[in-house]
Structures are given as C-alpha cells and as structure tokens.
Amino acid sequence: MAWLSTEFYFYKGSAPCRAVWMTLKIFKVDYEEKIVDLLKAENKRPWFIRMNPQHTLPTFNDHSFILWESRAIMMYLANKHATEETQYLYPKEPEERAKVDRMLFFDMGTLYHAIKEYFGPKIHQGLPPDPEKENLLKQSLDYLDHFLEIGGVPYLCGEKITLADIAVLASVTELDALEYSYKCYGDLNRWVERVKGNFPYYKECCDEGVAMTRARVKQLEADLKKQMEKERKASLTKK
Amino acid sequence: MDYYYNVLSAPCRAGMLTAKAVEIELNLKPVDLLAGKEQLADVLTLNPQHTLPTLVDGDFVLWESSPICTYLATKYGKTDSLYPRDAKTCATVNRLLYFDLGTLYRRFGDYAFPPLCMGTEVEPHKLDLLQEALRWLNQFLAGHEWAVGNNITVADIVLVATVSTIEAAGVDLSMHDNVVSWLERCKSTLPGYTEVNQPGVEEFAKTAEDKLKKL
Which residues touch B107 (CB under 8 Å, ≥6 apart)? Predict the structure, then answer.
C-alpha cells in the first residue's frame, strides 16, 4: 500500500542513485529499499512508467508523493528532514543556499553530463570512450578543481559538507568505476579524499555500486573482444 | 544588481522574467558571445566558468540560471508563491527545473545548436527525442493551469523561456495540447513577458529561419 510507505527505487550501479542513498542515510530517513535492475530494463515496465513517465532512477515515493530527479530528491529530503544539527547540509540563508544550488546544477548540467557523454560507449557497449568528448570532461574537472582552489574552504560551499559535496562525490565515483584518473587535479583529488574520509556513509553507499559498474564494463569489453575475434576468424576462413 | 546576459539565450531570459516577477530592477549588461576577450573581461573575471547568465548582487556573484531564479524568488519575493516553502510543492518545482536543464533544454540544444552554430544537417532522431520530452511536459501539465498546481512558479518561468525558444526554432508543438494552452497563458499572464522574453524569441526565430529546416 504505497500511501502508507516511503519507498526508494534505485540501482546501486547508478551514481545519482548513490547520491540520494547517501542523503537518505545522513538525514536518517526511514524508507523501504526497492532495487530496480536497469540491466533488465525493469524501469521500463508498465507499473514503473505509471509511477514515473520518464522511467528514470532514482525515484522516490513518500506516501504517494512521487518524485524523481536525484538532486530534487536530495533537496526535498533536506527541506523535510533537516534538524538543527543537520541544517548545515542545505543552509536556509539565501546566498548560502544558492551556492549549493549552483553546484547541484553544475553537477547535473556540466560534470555528470560530460561523464555520460565521454563514457557512454564504454558503459553501454564496452567500446572505447568517445575521444571527441574527452575535452568536455577535462574542462569540467578543470572547473571543479579551480572552484576548490579559489574557494579557500575545505568543501565545495564552505567549511562543512553540503548536498553539493554529496552529489559531486557521487559523480566522481563514476570516474572511479571507470578507472579514469583525476590525480592531476590537485585540489579536486584532495577534496575527494577529504569527503570520502569524513562522510560517514560513503563506503556503504558507493563501494558495491562502483564495483558492479567496474565488473560490468570489464565483462562488456571481454564479450566485445571475443565477438571481434570471432568475426576476424570468420572473415579469414572466407578468404 | 548587474546581470550579464545574451538575449538569444533562454536561460538568460528566465532570470530576467523572474526579476520582473519579483519587481527587481536589473542593471542589464548584454554580452556579445562573439566579442573579444577585452569586452568579455568583466564576465571572465567574475565567473570562473564564463557562462551566462551571471548575476552580481552586491558582493555575491551567482551563475546557473535556475539557481539565479530561485535565489531572486527567495530573497526578493514578497510572498513564497514563486518558489513555495512547502516541501512537496518546492520539490515538484525543483524536479521541473532539473527536467528543463537535463532533458528539455538539453535535447533542444542537441537538436538545434549544431545546425545553428556549425551549419551541420538537422538530424531527425534528435527531433524525435525533443518531441518525446515535449510529450512528457504535456503530461506534466495535464489537469492544472500552471506547471505546478494553480499558481505561477519559477518552474513556469524557466520552462516558458525554453518552450518559447523551441517554438521560435520552428518545432511543431501542435500535438501537445496542454503545452500549447499553457504557453499562451504564459505569454498573456507572466509579468513582463512581452518586454523581456518576446524580443529574444523573435531574434532567435530570425537566426533559426534558414538553418533549421522544418521537418
């Protein structure tokens, strides 16, 4: 009975899902886990589309209030569940809140977008990443590194972790899953270590999903190699 | 309050529409996207990401158009109607702001910007993806006057800047009844629509005329 419960529809291998998962944990929200297997296209089933016509993950059901878009869910959880102790994660004061919002929109529109564009072929088919899109990714990482450099504060928006750090960290874990090194971005690298070390739910919410994506990509690459070898041999015997 | 913008850009017009709605006077600073570095110096110094729009409110510099809209609504709105404090209503507004950035405006850009900016051929499958996004918007608008319930919010403002630009690009909206009637409602009701959004839309239409053949 959906109207009596809080349900989190997610897939561990998805970075935006991990961002919401970490947010649910830090605000100590009670919810039921509903794993949706993207690889089996469970999000395209009629019951899911009835709930969310865009059939995206994560999706959140709060007693029949349905919400999707990971960062909108994060903001909702903060607005609904933040206490005096946890308000720092999404400050109420307009300028401070706007800084967090700015980074959430940067995450979606620039950083995570660039990650998807570059790694799309690899994630979905085990093909090499799209070389034309690497500049877009490098530019996004450059901006992120630069924001941290000029910010003069330990986290993206100030002295404490905010929703911005959680969302951007989740996107960066996708780079970990795809074994893309960002070590050359000094401030970014230090910030990643800082957040991973200080955010209590990072390992619980990210380790398994990152491992899943890494394993799946390796499998796709191996399958593709076998397929290409098969085709190569077939074309040789034809001659 | 300085506002660096270009009139062709839908995200820029969204900020201007929000300022009108909260009755804030912006010191408009038009930026020619093709200008040299000296002319762009201001924006380049203020905003390390070099994007438009950029807002300067005293010492506070802000970019990303949706955060600019929600910031103006929160700080200067006489009531919270443009960006309601109620968690669920606010969440649905936010969902639509992300839908605009990540899906609607994104798919429009993917379809329109390569032909407009680089003279490449229009790709039909990209138009299909845009039409899918418009079908979703059509569904979201069913059963109520505005994007979220029966009051104007920043979701209407951000979405109308995008949808009016999509219309100006010659994209057929006629199969999306709710979008068509909502768009007309926005044009006649949103504060300052004719003054703020219409000129940019008309200029965009002129730019798009030859380069985006109607499919």
Answer: B126, B129, B130, B132, B133
